[in-house]
Amino acid sequence: MDESTFQRLMLGSASLMASLTNDCGEKTRLSDEECQTLFAQIEALPPYANTFFIVLNIKKVEVVKEYNVGLHLDVKGRVNFEKMLRAVKPELLEDYLRWGGAAYSYAATPGIRQILEPLKQTYRIMVPMLTVKQHYAWVLQESRALELDADSRLISHLNIYTVLRAYDDSEIIGLVGDVWDDGFEQVVWSRTLQEYAFKVRPFLLTKSETRTLDAVATNPHFTNSQTAALLGKSIYTVEEQNKAMLAKARGAFPAKQLRNVKDLADFLRVIGWFEKRSDNKVTS
Predict the structure, then answer these.
(1) Residues 45 and 172 occupy one common structural domain
(2) Which runs of consecutive H residues, i.e. helices, occur in the chain?
(3) Of 39, 85, 113, 128, which has the maximum CB count within 10 A?
(4) The whole model's pTM is what?
(5) Which residue in 127, 152, 149 sits closest to 138, CA to CA?
């Protein structure tokens, strides 16, 4: 996977996370004492358990706590969201992020939000990750809510990882996530999650679409003709790109009502998409 594709995948995932949390009002969370007890229990597992964990704040897209990641994965220095993604086998990264996006989107639906509680429900998936021994191993990821806002929207979650066995390139590859509640798999929820996995897509734009979107964001009062003239494109190209970008956005952010590309630009500005992007912008 080339660096440009990786950056676009990472940004698409971060944008989805930021779009699903409001962080409003009083929160439902474990107390500091409960968190300390929980973390201590995980840290007390014997070395042969091959277990490590992170706590991810999805609004900030920031790893706020980690334990033993560098002991098991090829992750050097301070652990962050990008380094965790780089440890995933590149051929399966998009698949991994699609399932993760489905889990976030499913957790944000009203029916699930009504029953979501810290540590009660678990999203599980097995994914090949690069170990410190420089080979890929199947790693079981178990994700549980840690902090919810007053509207029961996810703010942060605990990911517990367990290294299971070596990954064999000859294996039939394909990732599948499932949902558990109080230690039992919820088959109906897992099936619904699968449906979400094939609806939700990372928000990935071509370089040409990105330039058009930048022009719309920079000049929100421009007509399509003026945007086309600014970019040296035909009005037909701009109109078709606007349709394509809206279709991609509606697939990536199903909870958002986006009427046009200007709505999309406003939304992406709010969640910090333009600032986080690594490529150069177009200015008027």
Answers:
(1) yes
(2) 3-19, 32-43, 69-72, 81-86, 90-107, 110-113, 187-197, 207-218, 224-231, 235-252, 261-270, 273-276
(3) 128
(4) 0.77
(5) 127
